Amino acid sequence: MSYILVTGGAGYIGSHTVVELVNNGYNVVVVDNLVNSSYDVIVRIEVLTRKQIPFFKIDLNDHDALDQVFKLYPIQAVLHFAALKAVGESTKFPLNYYSNNVGGAISLLKVMEENNVKNIVFSSSATVYGDATRFENMIPIPEHCPTGPTNPYGETKITIENIIRDVYANDKSWKCAILRYFNPIGAHPSGLIGEDPLGIPNNLLPFLAQVAIGRREKLSVFGSDYNSKDGTPIRDYIHVIDLAKGHIAALNYLFNHKDNGLCREWNLGTGNGSTVFEVFNAFCEAVGKKLPFEVVGRRDGDVLNLTANPKRANTELKWKAQLSINDACKDLWNWTTKNPFGFQINNYSWTKFDSESLTNYDRLNTVRTFNGKFEVSISNHGATIVAAKLNGIKLNLGFDNLKGYLREDNPFFGATIGRVANRISKGDLLINGTHYQVGLNELHRTSLHGGTYGYNKRTFLGPIVKTNEKEKETTMEFVLIDLDGTEGYPGDVETKVIYTVRDTGVGGELGIEYEAKLLEESGRDSTAVSLTNHSYWNIGNQPSIEGTHIKLVSNKHLESNPLDSTPTGKIVTSTDLDSQNSAKLGPDGPVFDYCFVTKQQDKLDTRNDELRVVATATHPKTRIAFTTLTTEPAFQFYTGDGVDVAGVFTKRSGFCLEASRYIYNPKWFIPLNKGEVYGSYTIYRFENF
Amino acid sequence: MSYILVTGGAGYIGSHTVVELVNNGYNVVVVDNLVNSSYDVIVRIEVLTRKQIPFFKIDLNDHDALDQVFKLYPIQAVLHFAALKAVGESTKFPLNYYSNNVGGAISLLKVMEENNVKNIVFSSSATVYGDATRFENMIPIPEHCPTGPTNPYGETKITIENIIRDVYANDKSWKCAILRYFNPIGAHPSGLIGEDPLGIPNNLLPFLAQVAIGRREKLSVFGSDYNSKDGTPIRDYIHVIDLAKGHIAALNYLFNHKDNGLCREWNLGTGNGSTVFEVFNAFCEAVGKKLPFEVVGRRDGDVLNLTANPKRANTELKWKAQLSINDACKDLWNWTTKNPFGFQINNYSWTKFDSESLTNYDRLNTVRTFNGKFEVSISNHGATIVAAKLNGIKLNLGFDNLKGYLREDNPFFGATIGRVANRISKGDLLINGTHYQVGLNELHRTSLHGGTYGYNKRTFLGPIVKTNEKEKETTMEFVLIDLDGTEGYPGDVETKVIYTVRDTGVGGELGIEYEAKLLEESGRDSTAVSLTNHSYWNIGNQPSIEGTHIKLVSNKHLESNPLDSTPTGKIVTSTDLDSQNSAKLGPDGPVFDYCFVTKQQDKLDTRNDELRVVATATHPKTRIAFTTLTTEPAFQFYTGDGVDVAGVFTKRSGFCLEASRYIYNPKWFIPLNKGEVYGSYTIYRFENF
Questions:
Q1: Is the CB of A301 inside 8 Å of chain B's CB atoms?
Q2: Would the annotation count A67 as a binding residue?
Q3: Cys-Cys crosslink for A503: which of A472, B210, B232, B649, Cβ 3.0 to 4.6 Å?
Q4: b/e for A598-615, b at 16 or more Cβ within 10 A?
Q5: What is the DSSP secondary-structure string of B532-557?
C-alpha cells in the first residue's frame, strides 16, 4: 500500500484533486498549514469519498515534521499544491510569498530527496508567462512561450519550476510534472467543497458569488475598453473538476513513464477564451437573475488575452477539459447557496478526542446554540453524545476522553446504537425468510446493541456542519459505512446520524435524525436496521437521579422474557407508574428497564410521522424540564440500575430514554430492502421552568 | 552606536570586507554558519583590526536566532555575503544551494523587515549573466545585459536579486545595492586572511597556490583553443581588497542617498580581461618558479570572455579597482606560504571559556604536541595558562571556567602579568624623570602586578595559531592593546604573548615570548613594561608541593623591604638553599618568595640573549622533571605560602617560577621608549626522567 502526498490538500484545487485521487483508487495523505483553508474541507472530503484521509497540519518549512510524515507513510508521489496565491497580496507581502511558496517547496523537495521520493506534480500557473501578448503569435499560449512573470506570486512559481528543473538536471531519475493552470472556476457538484476565499475575493467568480448571495454589493469590471468582442479581457476558465482530473492524468503519465525520469511542463486550460461579460452572464443565468455590476478602470498588470494552448496535455496526457462555463457556474451557485459563508461556522469548534492518535479521525465536535444557553459535544467515536449542557449544567453521563469510552464497563454512554438496537435472542435474526447469526456478546446468549463491534465502537466520518440562521439551528451530519458481514449483518449499509442543535428561546434542544440505506453496490437485497441513542440523562446536577419526576405518554411496554430480557411478543401494562403515567425516581426504585410502546410499528421511515412528546422529566432542584419527542413507535426507559463504572458512576446515576423501534421480534420486524430508506427523528429538549 | 551586520563574514570576501569596514570606522557584527569557513578567520580579523568582533554562529534559515541578533545590536545595514558558491557542486546538490542561498536570503530579508532594517548590500555574481557572448556587443558586460544563469548557483543569485527587487517594488523605503562580482583573487597583504577552499579548489588561483605549495601535482588548463590571444578564456580578475572596498563605496552610497530608497545593480570588476595563461604566468613570477600545468579539454559551461564593464560603479559609487593581478599573486603567495593549509590546524581546538557570554571573546584555546604527550590550554582572559598536562597529569593550578579566575582570592593563577610585574612601592613609577602614580591595589601601599585591572584581567585578542611541522611546534599568538592611562600607565602599548607548544620527543615544552612596543599613535615618548607569567606549578600529582626537589642557577636575590616587600636595592644571598643551590620542599618550608637574579639587567629586549636553565624541579613520585629556561635576568621563586582559595587550594599547592626583570626600582629600571621593543623568552619544559 502506497500513498500520494498532497500538500495544500485542504485548498481549493487541492481538495478537488484529493477527491479525484480517492475516486481513482489512490491512497492519499494530506499536509496543509491551514493558513488559508479549513480542516472542515478534509472532513467533507472524507464524507464525500467515504474514506478516512490522514491529515497533518504542517508548514512545509518545518523540515522535521514533514520528514515524519514520509517516515509514517510510504509515499509514492507528491502533488504539491500548497502555496499562497493572491497576486495582489504578493505585491504587498513579497517575502511572505517567497518564504511560504519558494521556501516551502525547497523544504519539500529536500525531504523528498532524503526519503528517495522522486515523483512530483507541481502546481504552477499561467502567471509564469506574464503578458504573453508581448510576443507575436503566442495566443493561445504554448508551453514554449518565454516566461516572465509580472508579480511576486508569479515569480515564486517560476522560481520553483526552475528549482525542480535543476533538481532533475542533476538526477535524471526524478519524474516531475509541472502543470500550469489557467483560471480554475466552479465547485464540486455535491456542493460539499468549493472555493472559500478569506476576505475580499480576488477572482471574478468568487466575487460574483458573494454578490449573488448578498455578501457584496456589486461586481467591479476592471476595464471594458480592451480589444475583445465586448471590451472585457479574455481568460481561459477551466472547471476545477477538469483541472483535478488533469492531475490524475499527469500522475498516471509519470507512473507509466517507466524507463527513465522526466521533467516537463503542461498547460491545463480549455483552449477557449471567455470574456468577463460572458462569464458574468453565464453566472447570472445560473443564479436566475441579473446581478449588479459597474465598469471601473483597468487594473495594473491585467492584459487582454490569456488563453491556453492545451494541445500538449491533450495529446501527451490524454486529458481534455470536458465541462463548460455553464457547468462551473451551476456548481458554484449550488456550493454558494449550500454554504453561503463557505466553511466558516462560528458556533462550531472541535478538539482532538483521541489524544494518542496522530490523526484527527476522532474529534470532539461542539456546537452551541445561538442564545449560548445550550451546548452539545459529539465524538466521531460512536457519533456519541459526550456532553450536553444547559446554562453550564451537565445533563448527561460521559467521559472526558476516548479512553473512558473504551472501558469494558462503559454502559454505552451517549452512543449511537446499531446496526440493531437492544437484544436479539440467540443472535438469530430472520430477514425475509433467511436466518442470520449476528454477534453474541452477552454470555453467548443474546446479541446486545449490535454486538461486540457495534456502532458505538465505530469511528464515524464527518460531521458536515451547517448552520441555518433563520431556524436558529446548526446541524452536524455524521456518516458510517457499515460493511456487509460485520457482526454477521448482511449488506453494506450507509448510516447517517444528523444532530441538530437548536435554540428554543428559553433553552435548547438536540434533534437526532437517523437515515440508513442499503448501498447500491451491496450484494444483498435486504437487511435489518434499528437505531437509537443510548444517552444517560441526569437533570438534577447531583450524582443520583433521585428526585426526578418522570411522566410517560404510555404505560404499555413489551413483556420481557426473564431468561434473556428479549420480548415475549406480548404487550403489558406497567405497574410502576401512577394513574398519570408518572413516577418519582427514588434512590433505589422504582426500577424501569422496559420498551414502552406508543403506537403500532408500521413504517421503515417514521420521519414524516407526528413528532410527539413521549416523556417529560423535571427536577425541582435545578428546575430543568427535559422533554423527549419522537416520530418513533417505542422507547426504552431505563433507570440505569445496572450502571457500575468503577470509581466514576454507580447505579441510578442517569436514566435513558431511547426512542426506537420495538425490540427485535420477528412478528414486529420491518426489514430494510434495497431502494428503501430507514429513518427516524427524535428531539431531546432542555429548558428551565 | 550602530552596527553593520555582515552575513558570511568568516568567508573569503566577507572577511576582507569586515576588515575594510572596521578600517572605515564601522562597527560590525558577523553571523556565519561556518559550514565552509572557520571561526579562526574572525580571530584573525580581530588581531588585524585590533577590535573585538561580535560573532554569532547562526544559519540564516534559523529565523529566531537571527532575530535575536537584531534585538541585541542596533543594525543599520546588512552586507549579505553568506552563500554556498561552488558552481560545480551546485549542479550536484541543487537543493542545498536553494535551501542555503535562497532560503537563507528570504529568512534574512524577513527578519530585516520585521526589525525595520531596510539597507542591504547583496553579494550577487557575474554568473547571473550566464554566457554574455550569446548577445552582440555585450562584452565588456554592462549591468543591462539580460541575465540567464546556466547553473543552480547562478540561479540562486538571480532569484535572490529578484526577491530583493520585489521587496523594493513593494516598499520604496528600502535601499538595496546588488553587487555583481567578477573573479575575486588575492589575499590580505598581512597574510593573516585569505581564501581557504575546502577540498579541491574550483578556481584557478587557489588551485595554482596549492600546486605551488606542493599540495597538488599540476594545474589543469581547461581548453587552449578559445579565440583569445593565447587560446585560453578571458576573465576579469579583481583583487579581493578592491572588491571589499567596493562594498564600502556601495554602503556609503546607500547612506548618502537620503531622500528615498533605491534598488540598483553594480558590476564590481576591473574592466580588464586576462587569460588563464596570463594569470598563470603572473603567479609563477610571484612564486619565483615555473609551475607544472597540462592543457585538457574544455569544461562544460565555460565561455570565452567574461569581462565587466565597471563604469556604473566607477562613476556612481566613485570606486575603481586599484590593484593589479601581480599584486594579487604576490598577496596570495604570501598568504599561502604563511598558511599552507589555510586555517586548518589539526592539533588546535577551542571551547567557550565564558559560558555566560553571548560572544566568543573569551575562549579556552588548547594545543597538543605532535607526540600527544603534552597539552596546554590558554584562555583569552589574561592570556592565562589554564591547564598544562603531561601524559594526562595536570601540572599547574587553575580553574575550569572564567568564574574561578574572577574570584577575589585568585592569586593570579597562570595569568600574564603586566603592564609592570611585581610591586611598585607607593605606586610611584619614575620614567625618564617623570613620576607616574599607578594603581594601588595592596592596602593603598603598593601597586602589585599592574594594579586592580592588570593584564590578568584583560581579554586578549587572538590567538593566531600556526603550526610548524618541521620544528614540531604550534604557536598561539595573543595581542593586547593596553591604552594610555589605564591603571595610570602612560602610552598605548601593544603587547604580544606568543605561546609555543613544542614536542621535545620525551615530553613537551611551553615557550612564552613577550613583545611590547609603544604604538606610533600613542601620545607618549616612553613608558614602563615588565611582563611575566604567574603560573603555579605542581609536578607531584598531589595537593601539596611537598617532596619537590628544586635547584636554582643562582642563590642571589633582591633584598625585600619588610614593610611592603619592594626591593631595597641590595642583592643578598639566600639562606634557604644548600651548597648546590638546591632545596627539598616540605609541607611548611622552606618558604621562598624572592626575586633571584642571574645576571645584570642591561637590555630592554633579552630575546637574543642566551636561553639558560635557571631552575629545575623534580618529583620522585611522578618522575617529572620541570626545567625553566629564560633569556631574562631574574626570576621570582615563590612557594605559594599565601595561597588560600577557599574550598579549592591552600598554601603550598603550587610554586611559581616567574622569569622576569628585576622588581621595579629606579636604579635598575630600563624604560620602553618610542621605536624600541621590549622582549623576552622563557621556556617551561616537562619531561619524565
A1: no
A2: no
A3: A472
A4: bbebebbbbbebebeebb
A5: EE---B--SSSSS-TT-EEEES--EE
Minimum distance, in Å, between the CA of residue A89 and any CA atom of chain B? 10
Give residue A88's pLDDT band: very low, low, confident or very high (50, 70, 90).
Answer: confident
Q: From CA B203, how far away is CA B185, in angstroms rounded?
A: 9
CA angle B453, B459, B464 (to 5 degrees): 145
Tell me: pLDDT of A565 over 80. yes
The answer to whether B167 faces chain A, any CB pair under 8 Å, is yes
| Average pLDDT of span B60-88 | 95
Phi and psi dihedrals of B243, rounded to 5?
Answer: -60, -45
Which DSSP state fits A290? P
Decide if B93 touches A, using CB distance below 8 A. yes
DSSP letter at B345 equals: -
Residue A68: is it exposed, middle or buried by C-beta count within 10 angstroms (0-12/13-18/19+)?
A: middle
Tell me the β-bridge partners of A480. Answer: A495
> Is A33 assigned to a binding site?
yes
A617 burial type by CB count under 10 A (0-12 exposed, 13-18 middle, 19+ buried): buried
B341 has pLDDT over 80? yes
What structural domains and CATH numbers belong to chain B? 3-202+229-278+300-321 (3.40.50.720), 348-688 (2.70.98.10)
- Smallest Cα distance from A110 to chain B, Å: 6
pTM check: above 0.90: no
Q: Which residues contact residue A590 at a Cβ distance below 8 angstroms, ignoring those fewer than 6 apart? A: A576, A583, A639
Q: What digits encode the pLDDT tens for the residues B278-332?
A: 999 999 999 999 999 999 999 887 889 999 999 999 999 999 999 999 999 999 9
Q: pLDDT value at position A259?
A: 85
| pLDDT at res. A508 | 97
Distance in Å, alpha carbon of A462 to nearest chain B alpha carbon: 38
Flag whether residue A107 sits within 8 Å of chain B, measured between CB atoms.
Answer: yes
- Which of A544-580 are b and which e, b meaning 16 or more Cβ less than 10 Å from the residue's Cβ? bbebbebbbbbbbbbebeeeebbbeeeeeebeebeee
pLDDT, averaged across chain B: 95
Give the phi and the psi of residue B246 in degrees, each rounded to 5.
-60, -35
Quick one: CA torsion of B108, B111, B117, B119, rounded to 10 degrees? 20
Residue B432 C-alpha from the chain's centroid: 35
What Å distances lie between residue B585 and A171, B548, B629, B653, CA to CA? 74, 5, 21, 11
Q: What is the rounded distance in angstroms from the CA atom of residue B70 to the CA atom of residue B5?
A: 9
Q: Is B300 on the interface with A (CB under 8 A)?
A: no
Length of chain A: 689
What does the block give as the cell for A602? 408500521
Give the span between the Cα atoms of B308 and B141, in whole angstroms.
5
- Chain A positions touching B111 (Cβ under 8 A) are none
CA dihedral of B344, B349, B351, B354, whole degrees rounded to 10? -90
What does B379-448 look like in DSSP terms, one character per residue?
Answer: ETBTTEEEEEEETTEE-B---SSHHHHT-TT---TT-EE-SB-SEEETTEEEETTEEEEPPP-BTTTEEE
* Predicted confidence (pLDDT) at residue A683 exceeds the cutoff of 80: yes
d(CA B466, CA B464): 7
Nearest to A466 by CA among A348, A607, A360, A582: A348
User: Which residues 279-298 on chain A approach chain B with CB closer than 8 angstroms?
Assistant: none
Considering only CB atoms, B95 lies closest to which of A93, A110, A152, namely: A110
Task: Enumerate the β-bridge partners of residue A638.
Answer: A593, A656
CA distance B241 to B249: 12
Q: Which residues contact A568 (CB under 8 A, 6 or more apart)?
A: A558, A559, A560, A561
User: Rounded distance, CA B273 to CA B277, Å?
Assistant: 12
